[in-house]
Amino acid sequence: MLIRRPALDVFDAFVNPEITRRFWFSSGSGPLEPGKVVSWHWDVYGISADVRVLVVEPGARIVIEWPTPVEWEFTPQSADTTMVNITAFGFTGTDAERASSAIDSMGGFCYVLAGCKAFLEHGIELNLIADHAADAIIYE
């Protein structure tokens, strides 16, 4: 996904939970730093996940385990545009199970990238993560 912002800004949107919560999860326990384990929370669904941070290369790359490896690559296209590529890999199970996991992961990360783009380029919070599975929302 091409995002019309400098690479460091886009990178920071995924490293800094105060920004990431604007387009992905509800809250995070801290910034992504190599060797750390952070918790991400989706309050609307009542779930959380622990994420192990493997690699953080400012403005260039992030690698986590969640539970399988996920890699973000940030490639500047100009001073004000960045191509973001997210690759999830290491799926296990039968061929059908691996295919299903890969398709599910791709769909989720498409929402995340679209939400990030809208927020960084236009300041709009689209609520894509909550709204794509509205039947799973926990209402109190």
UniProtKB/TrEMBL annotation:
Pfam families: AHSA1. InterPro entries: ASHA1/2-like_C, START-like_dom_sf. CDD domains: SRPBCC_CalC_Aha1-like_8 (cd08901). Coiled coil: none annotated. Gene3D superfamilies: 3.30.530.20. Residues 6-101 form the Activator of Hsp90 ATPase homologue 1/2-like C-terminal domain. It comes from the Bacteria. Belongs to the AHA1 family. This is Activator of HSP90 ATPase. The lineage of its organism: Bacteria, Pseudomonadati, Pseudomonadota, Gammaproteobacteria, Lysobacterales.
